[in-house]
Structures are given as structure tokens and as C-alpha cells.
Amino acid sequence: MKRFALMISFMLLIFGLVACSSSDKAGSDDSSKSGGQIELTMWLWPGMGMDDYIKEYEELNPNIKIKVQEAEYSDHHQNLLTTLGAGSGAPDIAGVESGYIEKFKENSKHFFNLLDYGAADIKDEYLEWRWREASTNDGSVVLGIPTDVGPMAMAYRVDIFEEAGLPTDPDEVSAQLSTWEDYIEAGRKLKEATGKNMFNHVADLYAAAREQGEKQYYDDDGTLIIENSELIKNAWDYSVEAMDIHNNTERGTTEWSASLAAGDFATVFLPPWMLQNIKSDAPDTAGLWNIALMPGGSGNWGGSLLTLPAQGKHPQEAYEFIKWLMSAETQLKIFQKSGNFPSTPSIYEEPDVQNLADDFFNRDDLGAIFSEAAEKVKYVYRGPDTGTINTIMGDALITIADGQEQADDAWDKAMEEVKRQVER
User: Fold this and answer.
1) How many C-beta atoms surround the C-beta of residue 331 within 10 A?
2) Are residues 396 and 315 in contact, defined by beta-carbon separation less than 8 angstroms?
């Protein structure tokens, strides 16, 4: 919910970015040099897994010192937005989560264009859809270099599936639950046989299905198309239809953790980084899980970019550093140590990726299934108000789940609120 609140604040503060002049862009400046050493300031949030490799780069380049400042996810983005709007105080390098990049693209003048520093030469090293996320619509500006990605798969409780008479082999699960219609049918069979629910909350099913296509809320030219989007209407309809097999437990709550540990629901929609959440919240379920492909196709949840705010003093040096840090070679090291799934598909066939094993989930090829999912993701133009609309749609589904609204009324009210929020 902190992420949703932050997106609303973006709408209020973005005008400060528009009003701010880009005339303060700077090149090299001797003020941070001491004895020929250059200091680069870098803003991140915890858990990005880069610390060891930042130190390694300093060892390889004794003239470069990298000063890292971490803030919690929401605070980090708020601080960056504020400093860009104020025209001073921004770092040389800043992480930006992919869900927020469209807001920053609206004011791309506040960032150095990485094409000016050679980014065209590394474009083909990254997943095509992630590189497009990092670029303006016309491709004339590249704001950042992609870090990790969050391709979606589905974890499922083998013991509950077996009790329900559903397949337990992951390939068979992927085949039998290949569509959302199949998934919902299997969920009803599971509930009838076991009394347990298929998944935690319809808002999560909506989010997963929403990510499985190219036209969400906006057309590529920025036109709002939510009312006529087949993808969104299908995601909504699947969610409404699945009300009888969800646990009405919102992700990220203590109730979610308790229900997960108790086995109250049988599947979890997850990107790679969420594997640890299951292990932490339900440690006694080790060995009871396996992982299959997502119904309906793949989608992405998570990942970020490393950008160079135009207030930075050393853009060339900063670019050389982030190019090295996000190279395929270094991303492989980060993956091996921290599990952040790479945005560089050239290493997906590496044994260390393909054969990622975890006894908790009964798989010795976790990397293979996430690699397959990553390459199936489609690029989506999200638009600057996508986060706000996501919140509206999720809240509408919650009102249905809580018995406060009928589905048709909730949809109509959501559409009215979207227009009010986006067109104001």
C-alpha cells in the first residue's frame, strides 16, 4: 500500500518537475575530485544486491569512489522526485523501479540521455521489452540500464493438489492449467475436495492477468483505453468469476502470512524475488511446493533501472560504472549470490541459471522456468497514471470481495474514478 500511496504523491509533485528548468545539466566538475579521484553518489533501496560489486568496481578503478545512500523503497522514490523538482540535491546515479519509470519519462530532460554515452552499443544485451521500458516511446532517449526482472510463474502446494486429484508433476500442471478458465475450474474442484481455496485474493489474480498482454490502460500514443481494453476486461471478468475460490486475504498482510503457513490456499503467483517470502513466511511447508508456468502466459512483476540524473557531475564515469554493473557477467554474479533474476538473456543458458535448485520447492531447474517466463513477457506501455489506475481497480475488486458492491456497480464506479483521477 505504501507503493500505491507514493504513486498518488507523484501526481501532486510532478508539476514541480515540469516547472523545473533543465539548464542546470552538468558535465565533469572538479569539485568532487581529490588527488584525481572522482566520487559518484548513488541512491538505492535495500535488497538490490549490488554492494559487493560496487566495491569490486572501486578496486578495479582506484580513481573512482562510489558513495551509496539507501532509503526505504517509498522514501527513495519520493526523495528522488523531490530533488529533481527542486533542481538540486540529486545523485549521480539513481535506481528507479520499473513501475515508476513512466512518470519520470514525462520529464526525461531531468536525466542524461544514455544514448549520448554509448548505450546504443549495449541495447541488444537486454530483454527487448525491458529496454523499451527504459526508453521514451520514440526511442530517442534512454533513461536507464535495466537491472533484474520479475517474470511470473506459479507456485503450488503438491500435497493439496494431490488431495484434490489434480496433477502434481509441474509439466502436467502447466499443461492442464494453461488458461485462466482451466485454473478456475481446477480451483473449484480443489475447493470441493479439500475445503481449501485456490489462491489468496482476486486483486492478485487481476494483477497477474493484467500483465499478460500489450494493451492495458493506454494505447501507445497515451490515449486512455481502459473501457475498451479486451485485456483489462478479461482480467476483471476472471477475477470476478474466481470470487468463490479465493481466500480474501491480501498479499503483504499478517493474515496472508498466516494463511500461507496454514495451507489455507494452494497457489501463489510469484516472480523470482518472492520465493524468499514463501520460505520466510511458511518455513514449515518446505518440500510441499513445486513451480509451474502461469496460467494465461507470462507477465512481469518487479525490476528496476539505473538512471543518471542530469544534476550529476560525472555522467561519463557514472555511465561506465552502471554499464559494467549491469553487464551480463556482473548480473550473473548478482544472481548467483542474491537471486536477482537477470535482464540479460544471453546468460539464461548458463548452468548456474538453468540449474538453480531449491529443495524447499522440489526443483533443480528454477532458473529454466523463470528464463522461459522472462522471454515470453510482452512490452506494455503503462502510461504515467498506471499506478493510480492499478490502485483504483484493486480497490474495486476488494469492495466486491468484501460484499460491499456488486461487480457491475464496482466496475462503473471504478471507471468514473479513473476518469476523475486521470483527466483532472
Assistant:
1) 26
2) no
How many whole angstroms separate alpha carbon 209 and alpha carbon 179? 10
Residue 1 scores a pLDDT above 70: no
**Predicted structure pTM score:** 0.84
- Angle among Cα 253, 255, 257 to the nearest 5 degrees reads 75
CA distances for 89 relative to 75, 245, 328, angstroms: 15, 50, 31
Give residue-wise pLDDT tens across range 324-361.
999 999 999 999 888 899 999 999 999 989 988 889 99
Who's near 75: CB < 8 A, 6+ residues apart?
none
Nearest partner of 208 among 340, 377, 365, judged by Cα:
377
Cα angle for residues 349, 353, 356 (degrees, 5° grid): 135
Q: What are the two backbone dihedrals, phi and then psi, of residue 422, each rounded to the nearest 5 degrees?
A: -85, -35
The pLDDT tens digits for 33-87 are 445 799 999 999 998 989 999 999 999 999 999 999 999 988 999 999 999 999 9
CB-CB contact of 361 with 288 (8 Å): no
